[in-house]
Amino acid sequence: MSRRRRERTAAAPRDEASDRAVVQAALSHLQPLLVHMGSSRAADVAALRARFDEDPAQAWRDIDSNAWWAGAGSLAAETMTDNPGLAESEWDTQVRAFRELMIEIAEVLRARGIANPGLSSWLLAFRNWNA
Hints:
By secondary structure, the chain is an all-alpha fold. The protein contains 6 helices and no strands. It has helices spanning 16-37, 42-54, 56-63, 66-69, 88-112, 119-130. The mean pLDDT is 89.
């Protein structure tokens, strides 16, 4: 009996404009959220959002970088920072929203096939924590 190989089909091409719109919208929500949470990374997020209009290729590289997804100094790790003094229920809501926005961004990166090695672990953690 011979085994038939499954034919692999090429992934459907991504809609660049749609991917950018999703990520830019997420960044637009993330930046003021980070300001409210007292994060010093809010300005970086605002600059990255603007970079998508100026140099999209660089913006995709930046958002897929270790600064976003690798280790303790990454933006993803800021979802675990200490409460800066907000009411506990407000802090929990803010962190949950932060994680949801990071999930949205991570899903686009993964679908584009350019996901940083640290992204999968964060994506799993964010989903589990928010569940």
